[in-house]
Amino acid sequence: MKNLFDIKGKVAIVTGGSRGIGEMIAAGFVENGAKVYITARKADACNATAERLSEKGTCISLPHDLSNLDGIQRFVKEIEEREEKVDILCNNAGAAWGEPLDQYPESGWDKVFDINLKGPFFLIQKMLPLLRKAATAENPARIINTASINGIEPPVLETYAYSSSKAGMIMLTRHLAGRLARENILVNSIAPGPFPSHMMAATLAEMGDQIKAANPRGRVGEPEDIAGVAIFLASRASAYTTGACIPCDGGAAEV
Fold first, then answer.
1. Is residue 5 packed enough to be buried (19+ CB in 10 Å), middle (13-18) or exposed (0-12)?
2. pLDDT-derived band of residue 255, with 50, 70 and 90 as boundaries?
3. Among 106, 203, 98, 113, which Cα is nearest to 160's?
4. Which pLDDT score is estimated for 254?
5. What sign has the CA pseudo-torsion 38, 183, 72, 149?
6. Rounded distance, CA 181 to CA 47, Å?
7. From the centroid of its chain, how far is CA 228?
8. 72 CA to centre of own chain
9. What phi, psi does 67 have (nearest 5°)?
10. Which residues form the catalytic set?
11. CB under 8 Å to 155, separation ≥6 — which residues?
C-alpha cells in the first residue's frame, strides 16, 4: 500500500502544457518522477515552460497545433520516433469563446470544438498503438481528459461552445472508457472549477473576490489540487477506476 501514487519512470504527454492547468499537471508529473512531454501551439511559451520544469525532472517541449489532424499526426510521429510506448495521455489543451447569444459566431464555435473535443478524440485515436504497448492488466495505460464544471452545470457567462464541448468531453470519456477497458486502457476526466489560468485571468481579475467568497472552500484552486487528482488518475491508486469525472472545484458545483 505504500506506493499507490507512484508514477516514477512513466512516460506522460500533457497537451496545453505550457501554462495554466496543463502546466500544473505537468509540474506534478515531473516532480514525481515521470518523463513528461508537453505540447502547445505557441513554441516560445512551450519551450520556456519545459526549460523551467526541467530544473526538477524531465520535461520535453514538442510544440504543435493539435486542433487539426495534420498537426496531430506530426506530433504523434515525433513521439513515435522518441518512445516505444506511452503510459499517460493527458488531453488538457482548451479554448473558450464568449459572446452574446445573438452574435455568437460560427468561427468561435468551430475553434472551441476543434480544440476542446475534436482534437482530443483524434489524438487518442492516433496514440492508441503506443498506449496499447504500455497497457497491462496490472498496470493499465491512462487517458486523462480535462473537462470543466461548466460541462456539468451551465455557466453564467455566455460561453456556449465551451460548456457544450466540455459536456461532450465528459460523455466522450465515458464512451471511450467502456470501449477501452478490456484493452487495459483507463479513461477518466477531471472537471476543474476556477483556477488561476490564462483562460480565467480576465474573470478572476473582475470577479475574483466574489468567486472566492461563493466557493465553499473560500478560495480558487491551487497547483497541488489539480496535480493531485491527475497523479491519482495516473497511478496504481486508480487502477480500478474508469469512466469517472472527478470535480476539482472546492465544492462549487454542489451549491
1. middle
2. low
3. 98
4. 63
5. negative
6. 34
7. 13
8. 16
9. -85, -5
10. 162
11. 162, 163
Three-state secondary-structure class, residue 143: strand
Q: Which amino acid is at 108?
A: G
**Cut 0.70: pTM above it:** yes
- Please state, in angstroms and rounded to a whole number, the distance separating the CA atoms of residues 182 and 168: 23
CA separation, residue 35 to residues 44, 48, 71, 76 (Å): 20, 17, 22, 16
Q: What is the mean pLDDT of residues 46-59?
A: 98
Q: Which grid cell sits at 105?
A: 459566431
Q: In 54-102, which ranges are continuous DSSP H helix?
A: 69-82
Name the grid cell of 112.
Answer: 472551441
Is residue 33 within 8 A of residue 7, CB to CB? The reply is yes
User: How many Cα atoms are found within 13 Å in the side-chain-facing hemisphere of 29?
Assistant: 31
User: DSSP secondary-structure letter at 96?
Assistant: -
Spatial separation of the C-alpha atoms in residues 101 and 30, rounded to whole Å: 41
H-run or E-run covering 46: helix 43-53
